[in-house]
Structures are given as structure tokens and as C-alpha cells.
Amino acid sequence: MDDADLIAACRAGDHHAFAELVGRYRTNAWHVCLQITGNTHDAEDALQDTLTAAWQNLPKFRGDARFNTWLHRIAANAALAVVRRRKNTDSLDDTDGDYGIVLEDPAPRFDEQITTVDAVRRALAQLPEDFRVAIVLAEFASLPYADIAEHQGVTVATVKTRIHRARKQLATLLTPAIDP
Description:
single chain, Rna Polymerase Sigma Factor, Chain: A, Arc Repressor Mutant, subunit A, RNA_pol_sigma70_r2, sigma factor, WH-like_DNA-bd_sf, DNA-binding
């Protein structure tokens, strides 16, 4: 069955069709949540909120965008809501943060990968929210610029600019300081 058939079955109350539909895009939604929140605990909460919101709002899905684009939009919004809630409750003195790491296929130099993943997550967390969402949707959800523009309510040119600036800022944040 294609997405349209599954959506029709979901609207008729078929829970199995919904499970199959979101199962196709769940991994990408998870990566969006993980990259925006920066840790597995918050990403789990965001993904749960995403799936609940998708089920509850499926009757409102108009089909103007592809289902996976719509689901990624919900995932990004849910992850941002979790981040905002966390920022309101985090202590200003807590500088360690909780950066859970999930590596499905660890390379031989596991310790270096942990360091790299942690550095990328910390760098992503330092980006302005609009930049972070744009780069995560482009790089981790593999969404086209047009879908990201629709998600953020901006033009494709603005998305390109945000992604370009995000990449520059990430390069700066991830480049080790060279001592003179």
C-alpha cells in the first residue's frame, strides 16, 4: 500500500495502518528529534509526542505536502518544545548536560567516535534555533530545501542561507583552536 492508501485506512480508524505508515518514517523522525534535543531521553519524549500528535491530527492532514514532510514538521516542533521546556527547568550552573549517544554501527575507534558525536551535538546546541532546525532537517532527515522552507515558513533562499551559515558556524565550533 502507498502512503495515500494507508492514510485513508488510518482515517477509518485502522491502528495497524498507522503503525505501518509511521514505521516507514519513524527512524528519520527519531534522528530529527535526537539532533534537535541533543540527548536520547528528550528525543524519546519528543518522538512520543510526535507520534501522538500525528495520530490525533491525521484527520487534519490535507495532503498538500508528503506525509513524511508533515511528520518531520511535527517531530521538529515536538523536539523544539521539549528543548524549550528543558531550558526553563535547567539550572544555569549545569554545564555538563546530558548527551546520550546512540551509535548503531561503532567503528574500531569507538572512543574517538564518542568524542566526535558529543562535539557535534554540543555544537548543534549552540546554533540559533532556526539554523539548527534547518541543518537537522537537511542533513539528518534528508528533506529537500522546499520542504524545509515550508516547515519554517520562509523562502527556499532563506533556508539555503540558514544552512550555509549553520555549516560555517559548525565548522568554526568544531575546528580545534590552534595555539600560537
